[in-house]
């Protein structure tokens, strides 16, 4: 009789296993998502890191005008 009372007071195993499985799967999903978001994209073909951009003469002229206009504004 005493053994039956003691058994009725404890939570069933599935009440502990279910939340632990959900917590573990959420942790794994979070780590995988974080790793995916923190990866840097590979450099584009033909571009080297630290290499200056090659602008055409027209693009360079337009960029210089844009900088001059911005600098002229108070």
Describe this structure in words.
With 74 residues, the protein is an all-alpha fold. The chain has a domain at 1-32. 68% of the residues lie in helices and 0% in strands. It has three helices and no strands. The chain has helices at residues 2-9, 13-38, 57-72. The longest helix is centred in the middle third of the chain and has 26 residues, at 13-38. The mean pLDDT is 80.
Q: Tell me what portion of residues adopts beta-strand conformation.
A: under 5%
Structural class: mainly alpha
Integer average pLDDT: 80
Contiguous low-pLDDT stretches (5 residues minimum) are none
Alpha-carbon distance between the two ends: 90 Å
Helix content: 55-70%
Over all CA atoms, what is the radius of gyration? 31 Å
Short account of what is shown:
The chain is mainly α and 74 residues long.
Blueprint (SSEs and pairs):
Layout: H1 2-9, H2 13-38, H3 57-72
Give descriptors for this structure.
68% helix; 74 residues; mainly alpha; rod-shaped
